[in-house]
Please model this.
Amino acid sequence: MIAGHRAELPDLSQDLTVFVATVGDEANFNDCMAHLERQTARFRFEIIDHVAPLSAAFQEMLNRCETPYYIQVDEDMLLFPHAVRALYDRMAAAPEKTAMVCAPLWDCDVNHSLYGLKIYRHQVVRQFAYENVFSCERMQIRRLQEAGYEISFVPLGPRESCLGEHGRHYTPRTIFTRWRRLMRKRRRYGNDCARGVPGPRFLLERYLNTNEPLHFYALLGAVSGLVGDLPPDRELDYRQQNPDFERLTEHFAPGQTGAKLSDDDGRL
Model:
């Protein structure tokens, strides 16, 4: 149970665990925790701290869970006060063949609702261990569906229909990493890999319109993800340094709008 929950709130702690995965992003983590403190229900709570890659963090949730249901929260998710209760109620009312309910969050980067917040039926998903592949969640969903289980998607919609926000505290490094990975997923799996995620042309036009440094690094991340060889078929370890980003910062300084050209840029 999150400290500070009022005793009169509905107590879901026998049925529900909320797991928060963090790799040490202090701004996101602190804001995430503050939003969890405001939830309108009581529940069990655990932190998955610096466990990577993603497949290992998700597997840790499977291993630790002792309740019928659990919710996966990343540290860059800021849940609205009714989110945990609403997601629990939807799963509790779903058929037993429903292994997972996925709900939209309002993505602060693209100003659009995107899927991200998930509640799982533990007795089902614990039978399907996560594999360290490029998109371990995608692989698990496929295996669940092949076994006859259902995945329920809450429809995408406007901000007021979402259960929270995603990505309020991006930095040049994290937004670069995000878009590099999204474009690599698009190359590997096709355009259906992330519903509602815009393409690189959107990023280019957005940066030209705003001249915002974060929009510039989002564009650079997308370009990095579109060119060169795809990485090995395994999940990303967010604890590791990003050599592509490090090389680019030699020419484009974080915190500045647009490009900082090096001394040997070849200008006339």
